[in-house]
Amino acid sequence: MAVTVSPSSGAAARPITRAIRESLFAGVISFGLFFLLIGLKTDQNIRNELVLVQRWGLLAAVVLITMAGRFLYVAFGQPALERRKAAQANAPASTAEPGFIRRNFNAIGIAALFLFPILVVSTAGLQGSLKWVDNFGIQILIYVMLAWGLNIVVGLAGLLDLGYVAFYAVGAYAYALLGSHFGLSFWILLPCAGLMAAFWGVILGFPVLRLRGDYLAIVTLAFGEIIRLVLINWREVTNGSAGISGIPKVSFFGLMSFNISDDNYIGKVLEIAPSGAYYKIFLYYLILLLCLLTAFVTIRLRRMPVGRAWEALREDEIACRSLGINTTTTKLTAFATGAMFGGFAGSFFAARQGFVSPESFVFIESAIILAIVVLGGMGSLGGIAVAAAVMIGGTEILRELDFLKAIFGRDFTPELYRMLLFGIAMVVVMLWKPRGFVGSREPTAFLKERRAVSGSFTKEGHG
Amino acid sequence: MAGENLLDIRGVETFYGNIRALNGVDVSVKEGEIVALIGANGAGKSTLMMTIFGAPRARSGTITFAGTDITRMPTHEIARMRIAQSPEGRRIFPRMTVMENLQMGASLDNLKYYNEDVEKVFTLFPRLKERIGQRGGTLSGGEQQMLSIGRALMARPKLLLLDEPSLGLAPLIVRQIFDAIRELNRTEGLTVFLVEQNAFGALKLAARGYVMVNGNVTMSGSGKELLANPEVRAAYLEGGHH
User: Fold this and answer.
1) Are B155 and A324 inside 8 Å of each other by CB?
2) CATH class for the region spanning A107-432
3) DSSP string covering A232-282
4) What is the pTM of this model?
5) Checking CA distances to A211, which of A87, A447, B19, B29 falls within 20 to 30 Å?
6) pLDDT digits over A178-224, tens only?
7) Per-residue pLDDT tens over the stretch A41-92
8) Domain coordinates of chain B in residue numbers?
9) 8 Å CB contact of A312 and B93
10) Does B94 touch chain A if contact means CB atoms closer than 8 Å?
11) Which fold has domain B1-82+158-242?
């Protein structure tokens, strides 16, 4: 709102009285603004006549929300911000020892993720856990994995890729086709799908070797669309937009099956009541392990020559070349490695859904994955995981907010505002933290470093 | 004379599109020498520096390094011949720390000599040691120049190319950097080819020098000779050297 109080009167007035006054102003302005926009709506009646529908309740709700928001901001938000600013000014550069939770953030996070299904099953019951484990747990973790995979290309190597979903699609279709035609198991097809996606990563990499920035982004965008259009139009193989269904489930390393009709169904083997939740919980742990694999590989690679070369490439390509780094292979390995993880995630996605169609691999998916990487802070695994949880979990939670219907009317569907909220969240985060949730990067070099070659084990006295 | 030159540039012509930037340049650098190339803005000094590295590539002429023709080699292969450079604009990695920048310089040997070479760089430029964990982009101009040279030295070069190491730096820092170069040359016999606008400092430092005008080498001689040459004095030295 444009209502601000001049400093002379504002400094004297106590925050609460000032807040009440400003919230009244805000109420008047929002009433004036929304009176026609929300209070009145044109509609057709049963005889096709134009009628005016009056929505005074909704108007009142919007005005009240505006007033409450202004009140809370002026009464509590502003003073708190000022106090914080003053506190920061008074305590310069006090690098306080980070707290226990901060120091062990990663360990606590991973432990919590491992305990999550147990917690959900014990509180919501086996059937009740489905929604939380599947819609929240698995869904978020798939995006975490995709974003971590893309992070190698965008965050580390600095190559802006807008068509990442293509590799996700390649992985998914590789599993769907090979699994349903040849009956190969998930455990064989997972690496196959990864390799195939990596292969396509190299295929994409070659023509874009000389491109950077905007030009690279456009070509990768086109690449993503090409893959999708091939999937739609190559009907003999991909079954077009109808997609492929009946994709086999993952087995428990071939020991137990999750098909209730099989002899080695998990319920029969372990003598427990049949339920769909076992499969979901199994999938949850599977994707969690895949995520951890991605993180582990990323962290290891960053400390290896190729990972360092990726980061240097992001910083300055010409400097890289003049230091003897082959930028061609560096770029191709970045594309291939990122694509491989996309492929893993794709084959997992196909196994989880049991159905793939080109619908799942549209451009907006690439955009969401990229947004998660940017919001989380390029290159930071922890930040990206948080961003994925907020973005994907947040949009899932929207489905649960039934009480909003009481305010905004029966036909209000919060899911439809998903993209709006996504956009608002991005703008807010970028204003508040322009480098993403975690903007700092961990250095990988220190004064006394172990030698990177095996020679480090032959000579003593170092490290 | 032929054969003993570490770097031999013969009749090199380089074009940017249709614009001729180098017009048949002949320059040679002997092992253990400091050679300076001076000239005004836009004379083609930096172009020659980059042409040695193959970007842009010479359209005609040959560049030979230690007896090997490197004219058509890819840039990273040229670097692997142990030519290192501190390029125009320094080009350090801004988001990486000082240590990481130095580490990148050592990638040729897979960090084999990393620990000893880092110590050497820190002895040469103690300022860098104070900035170990700082990001390259947050360093001052002089520190960035030191880092750029230090990073090049990490590659254990046979030939060090320096493109305007004094650009935009305070006289005191320039002297420090020139002293460091002289020291490297004296103690380790490092061969240095530097491009400078600061003709006075460069010619005092160098054993030999070349003067470049509009893509042509117009004069050459020992550093002392060029410093005493009236034309050089008139064009590059009179008015405001320190």
Assistant:
1) yes
2) mainly alpha
3) HH-HHHH-GGG-EE-PPPPPBTTTBB--TTSTTBHHHHHT----THHHHHH
4) 0.82
5) B19
6) 998 998 889 999 999 999 999 999 999 988 888 888 899 999 999 99
7) 888 888 888 888 888 888 898 899 999 999 998 888 888 888 888 887 776 5
8) 1-82+158-242, 91-156
9) yes
10) yes
11) Rossmann fold (3.40.50)
